[in-house]
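Hey, resending since the last one bounced:
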Amino acid sequence: MDTNHSANTENAIISPVKLAHFVVRTSNFKEIVDWYLKVLGAEISYANDQLAFMTYDDEHHRVAVLNIPGLGKQPDGIVGIHHVAFTYATLNDLMSTYERLKKMDIKPVYVINHGPTTSLYYADPDGNQLEFQIDNYDTVEEAGKFFFSKEFAENPIGVEFDPDELLARLRAGEPESELKKRPNVGSKDLSDVKLK
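The structure tokens again:
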């Protein structure tokens, strides 16, 4: 990527090339670090008593945790980032992760087929939420078309589902393409959704 700026590009909007990492501050340092290691299948790339860097791919760190003693709990009903989302390659990968985490008594707080994605939302021990998702369409263009459909106009949120039932159907051999289709259940809006 050319980082030289000329007169023609000095006012151009240049977007980032990727989302590198996010940082969590906590007073429950060990518990939070352990949770992210388990949930993301991550490894420590650096840690001391005040800071931990974790990664699950070739990035030096995708998640960092800061140990700050004496922090209060997150209250409900305040502004801030609602969640951070991670995309899995296949529905099988997503549901295998669900199955692995459930065995460790880590369960989603909310599950929904949004239409463009099938999503499982988890909350870490401090209440920070992660969305684990798969893309339901093969291309961005196909997903984009869904936003202009009658189904999206009636229900821009999505349809909740039972993850154990979805997992059983997947293990029984039902095609991912069928399992990813969002059922049409009529009108729904944000007031119907359990958002904290």
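DSSP finds six helices and nine strands in the chain.

Sorry for the duplicate.
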